[in-house]
Design brief:
alpha+beta, six-stranded antiparallel beta sheet
Length: about 180
């Protein structure tokens, strides 16, 4: 029983030290999900992508005829929990390509990376495929390939600003930790 109590105390201290970092991670994830929401709500998981490097999982979600969401996951990691301490290590993957097989009748016209906001990406088309060069993958990266140019430049609330940029800025800013747009 003494070991259990000792473990619980050490674990609580570890959690206390990580709570601010955890809040930042949750805040960032919330922003990314808000950006992806309009596509994910019409999406279905479909296997369309392959990375040309070991230990990188390339998952895709086909979002009707509007977009393909690509989620890269680095599976080259180690996690340990011993004697009340936790450790996590990973090996970053560098300089590789992901090939996305675009369904017939769908033409990709723009691409973005979603992570703490969004930014346009470079890609090239090769027959029915889109090739995305990836410089580095720590743990995960998310991309959206759209059939409409500038699909993120929309202003549904009519205030003259891109709603996606507003969500990304709001959701990742520390002053907005307790609020939701």
């Amino acid at each position: 029983m003494k070991n259990y109590v000792n473990f619980k105390i050490r674990f609580s201290i570890l959690i206390g030290l990580l709570i601010e970092e955890l809040k930042n991670v949750v805040r960032t994830l919330n922003g990314e999900l808000q950006i992806l929401k309009r596509f994910l709500k019409i999406g279905e998981p479909v296997s369309l992508a392959l990375a040309d490097i070991k230990d990188v999982e390339a998952n895709t979600i086909l979002c009707g005829d509007r977009a393909i969401v690509l989620i890269l996951i680095n599976n080259d990691f180690q996690g340990y929990l011993t004697k009340g301490s936790a450790s996590f290590t990973y090996t970053a993957k560098e300089t590789f390509k992901v090939t996305v097989n675009v369904p017939e009748g769908m033409e990709i016209r723009d691409g973005y990376e979603v992570g703490g906001g969004f930014k346009k990406i470079q890609y090239r088309k090769e027959e029915e495929n889109v090739i995305i060069p990836v410089d580095k993958l720590d743990l995960t990266r998310q991309f959206v390939l759209t059939t409409q140019p500038d699909d993120y430049n929309f202003d549904q609330d009519g205030d003259g600003f891109s709603d996606i940029q507003e969500i990304a800025t709001f959701s990742t800013h520390p002053d907005n930790a307790e609020e939701h747009p």
